[in-house]
Amino acid sequence: MSTNTIEASSPKRPPTPRNGVDTPKLFATIAVVADQPSLAEFRFRAQGRWMGGTHSRTTISGFYGVGGEMRHVEAIEADSDHPSVLCGEDRGPTPVEWLLHALAGCLTAGIANIAAARGVSLGSVACDVEGDMDLRGILGLSRDVRNGFRAIQVRFRVTGDAPAETLRKIVEQSRARSAVFDVLTNGVPVDIKMNS
Amino acid sequence: MSTNTIEASSPKRPPTPRNGVDTPKLFATIAVVADQPSLAEFRFRAQGRWMGGTHSRTTISGFYGVGGEMRHVEAIEADSDHPSVLCGEDRGPTPVEWLLHALAGCLTAGIANIAAARGVSLGSVACDVEGDMDLRGILGLSRDVRNGFRAIQVRFRVTGDAPAETLRKIVEQSRARSAVFDVLTNGVPVDIKMNS
């Protein structure tokens, strides 16, 4: 069994469920994937459709993983729009705010998993995520300004039955294994085509 | 008035509302920001909180922009979770699916704005977004596998009162001015701290 990701503080102590995380199942899942790497291949999906103006709606319902097609318990629809000051009708968060949401969700899930694996019971986890942007980029008003965020900052408040330094190391390990943090900081190739 | 972003096909023809986009307001907004670049400074925000296990909830309610604090018409709450096969309870999309949602929303809004500015009336815009990921990264099973997506692909279907080549150029210009595309492909510095 691999414990190199979640680094249980004492590998000899059997993991127990904690923080709402089924820690034994998590360890067992890692062991199964270690034996059969093809199970680790996932393809996540979202279907978008234009609703009018800058308003669009996305459906997230299924994905490919662990060797087959999977369905979410419930398909989710979520809206994006521009606010009034950007000539939208504010029928949902802006797309860039959804990026901040994704980051918060990924880091928070990692904190819960890693704390459980390390035998730390959490009391609460909260975060403020902020992203700074100069809109002259997307408005085409300056060649020196990028389209996206120039910086994102995340501030966590975490309570649990461990010293602050232990909690801080859990946050750091969540960052080190976060899929969203990796994509946002390192980038990923995005191929866009229009079917004719 | 600057038209360098949205490249109206005929700058001499006054822009008219189209596709649900208030095109005159959009051009006027760009002109105002060109005169007062400080209005372009935005700070977007999301507040996350842990709900138990890998489930978290984000609130998106306000942002800073055009020189002051702004509120969305409605605060939005959105959930993230891991699916059952990843030891979660599937109480919401995964954080990485939210990234795909953000990309769909940003590119679709751009298509509507740019089509309006170019005098093209859209019939429909839809897209499929997919992201491929090898979970051995986040599970810590391979040093050669990254945590995040290795590739994302977006396929658009667009109808409107213009030839396919014109529609394709609108999609391309949306990509060229997309904040989310920029962040996902080029990356952004992300600073994470825990307040003690």
Number of domains of chain A: 2
- Spatial gap, N to C terminus of chain A: 49 Å
Largest interface: A-B, 134 and 135 residues
The overall strand count of chain A is 6
At the fourth level of CATH, the homologous superfamily of the largest domain in chain A is K homology (KH) domain
Strand order of the largest sheet of chain A: 1-2-3
The SS-based structural class of chain A is alpha+beta
Q: Which architecture of the largest domain in chain A per CATH?
A: 2-Layer Sandwich
Oligomer: homodimer
Order of helices and strands of chain A: HEEEHEEHHE
Percent helix of chain A, as a range, is 25-40%
CATH topology of the largest domain in chain A: GMP Synthetase, Chain A, domain 3
Net shape of chain A: globular
Strand portion of chain A, in percent? 25-35%
Question: According to CATH, what is the class of the largest domain in chain A?
Answer: Alpha Beta
Low-confidence stretches of chain A: none
Characterize the main sheet of chain A: 3 strands, antiparallel
Total number of helices of chain A? 4
Mean pLDDT of chain A: 94
Radius of gyration of chain A: 20 Å
